[in-house]
C-alpha cells in the first residue's frame, strides 16, 4: 500500500535515502571502503570501450554514467536511446562492454539493443531493478538496483539506485585500469556512503520547493538547464514535469542556450536550473545571468556552498547539502523530482497513472 502517503510517487520519493543505502550495500564493503563487484565472466581491465543504452529516465541515468566513466575511468562511452541504438548498428569491436539500464528489465527497445550488442560480441552487463526479468536472463551479469517495487509510472527511486550502481561500476573500472588508487577509492566510497543521510536532509527543503512549484504550475512552458552531469539531471526534471503535469518542458545544456532557446525566454517561461558548486559553477551562473537579463524568472537548485551567489539573481533558491562533485548528481536529482510532484498536486493530475503512459513499455 501507500503507507499513508497520498500517492505511490510520494512514497517512492521518500524511499530515496533507504534505496540508495541498500543498493550501495550490495556493492561496497563498508569495513574496507572498497567496491566489491560480483564475479564477472570477463576482465574489466581488458575493456576498451563501453556502449550504453536505455530509455527514458534510465537513459538519463546512463548519461550521468557516461560522464563518470569517461572522467574517472577514462574509457570512451558511446550512448544513445535504445530506440535509436537498436537500428543504428554501430560498428563495435568484440570484447567491449555493452551496458544496459532498465527498471523493469522488459523494455522492448532496450531488450532489442541488448540482443544487437550480444551479436556484436559485447559483454552484456545490465543494471536492473527486476532481477527476474527477460533482460536479466539474457545478460552475462546483472548489477541489481535494490529499489523494491516501483509502482508510480514516473520513475523516482529507481533512478538514484541506478546512479548508485553506475557510480560503483565507475570506481571498479577506474581501479581495474589503474587510474583510481586506494586513497581515491576510499574517498569516493565515503562520499557514496554519506548519501543516505544527506538525501534525508533534502526533505527539509520541502517548503522552498513548494514555493517554486506555485510558479511552475502557472507556466505553459518551462526551461530546464544544467551543465556536465547536471545536464541529464535537467533532462530528468523536464521529463518528470511533462509526464505528470502535462506542462511543456525542455531541458538544455546551459551552454547551448545562446544557440537558440534563449529566444524563448521572457517572464512567462520560468528557468529551472541545477547549479551546485563545483568546476562548472561560474560558467552556469553566467548563463543564468543572460537568462535573467531577458526577463527570465530563475528557479535554482544548488547546494549550501553555491546558494549565496545564486540568491543575488534568482527568485527561488533551493539549497541542499554540499557534497563532492562526483556524487552531486545523485543528490540533486531528488529535489528536481519533488518539484514535479508538487506541481502535479497543484494541477490535480492523476500522479501515479498519467494519461497515455504505461509503467513498462514492452512493445516498440
Ligand atoms: O523499465 P525501464 O527502466 O526500461 O523504463 C524506461 C522508461 O520507460 C522509463 O524510465 C520512463 O521514461 C519513466 N516513465 C520515466 O519516469
Automatic annotation (TrEMBL):
<comment type="function">
    <text>Catalyzes the first step in hexosamine metabolism, converting fructose-6P into glucosamine-6P using glutamine as a nitrogen source.</text>
</comment>
<keyword id="KW-0315">Glutamine amidotransferase</keyword>
<feature type="active site" description="For Fru-6P isomerization activity">
    <location>
        <position position="359"/>
    </location>
</feature>
<protein>
    <recommendedName>
        <fullName>Glutamine--fructose-6-phosphate aminotransferase [isomerizing]</fullName>
        <ecNumber>2.6.1.16</ecNumber>
    </recommendedName>
</protein>
<keyword id="KW-0963">Cytoplasm</keyword>
<dbReference type="GO" id="GO:0097367">
    <property type="term" value="F:carbohydrate derivative binding"/>
</dbReference>
<dbReference type="GO" id="GO:0005829">
    <property type="term" value="C:cytosol"/>
</dbReference>
<keyword id="KW-0808">Transferase</keyword>
<feature type="domain" description="SIS">
    <location>
        <begin position="212"/>
        <end position="354"/>
    </location>
</feature>
<comment type="subunit">
    <text>Homodimer.</text>
</comment>
<feature type="domain" description="SIS">
    <location>
        <begin position="40"/>
        <end position="179"/>
    </location>
</feature>
<dbReference type="GO" id="GO:0046349">
    <property type="term" value="P:amino sugar biosynthetic process"/>
</dbReference>
<dbReference type="GO" id="GO:0006487">
    <property type="term" value="P:protein N-linked glycosylation"/>
</dbReference>
<dbReference type="GO" id="GO:0006047">
    <property type="term" value="P:UDP-N-acetylglucosamine metabolic process"/>
</dbReference>
<keyword id="KW-0677">Repeat</keyword>
<dbReference type="GO" id="GO:0004360">
    <property type="term" value="F:glutamine-fructose-6-phosphate transaminase (isomerizing) activity"/>
</dbReference>
<keyword id="KW-0032">Aminotransferase</keyword>
<dbReference type="GO" id="GO:0006002">
    <property type="term" value="P:fructose 6-phosphate metabolic process"/>
</dbReference>
<dbReference type="GO" id="GO:0005975">
    <property type="term" value="P:carbohydrate metabolic process"/>
</dbReference>
